[in-house]
Amino acid sequence: MTEPRIAVAVVTMGNRPAEIDALLDSVAKQDLAPARIVIVGNGCPLPEFAERLGLPGEITPIELDENLGCPGGRNAALARLREFGDIDVVVDLDDDGLLVEADVLRRVRDLYAADGQLGIVGFRIADEHGETQQRHVPRVGKSDPLKGGYVTGFLGGGHALSMAMLDETGDWPAEFFFAHEETDLAWRAADAGWRILYAPELLLQHPKTSPARHAIYYRVNARNRVWLTRRRLPLALIPVHLGIWTLLTLARTRSRAGLRAWFGGFLEGVRDPAGERRPMRWRTVWRLCRLGRPPVV
Description:
Order of helices and strands: EHEHEHEEHEEEHHEHHHH
Helix content: 25-40%
Distance between the termini: 37 Å
């Protein structure tokens, strides 16, 4: 197999200028230069990154008129990369992340060159102290963040996607805006027979955060979870998944305002159109179970 050509895509809201400068500087220090770099301003103007940092590869800025959310912004980057027609793998990085090692892109290239059915590679996310939050480990339970292997999902903050896979499965669910878009894409990839690899040696340094810091978190988390199950699960598993998830939410959530927003989002997910229904096959359900994460947890 010929060596795949790698692109880097970053979506920014324009409110982290120092962080994105540091991220792009870490991209510039990679021992494999990306063929292209796409920077999406999600409803915000972009400064002249390329001139300030001397980045390798061809720089393509995209300024969107409105904030389309993370999946919508990433779809804008994918659309531009398809226009170029010379990219095999896109590496998506959060704008406040940092590539600590200089060989990340080379390792990504080598992984895809060795496996034609590799669809998604998930990076390990760790803070400046090297700690990985348990929610960032794509396995159930108290799993070792340094243990790699094939998994059922991946992290949005740092990952690589096969363009051939996306041509088959479709792009990010832009209507989700924020929350669970990774699971929707991962389930489609698994159902199409693509492999998802968690590669902890690929490290993205990222500040320790909580998704609940976003004002819309509880509402869209609930709405998108309902949409996800309506779109991707066999009918028999929808009430099982939502029932387990509701009990876990009630047990874990201490904020009354958060619970009110959550129930509002849940009803919104039931009431509003969820988009195209393309449920996974039962053999995919079994495959996800064998990989350690049944699609009801």
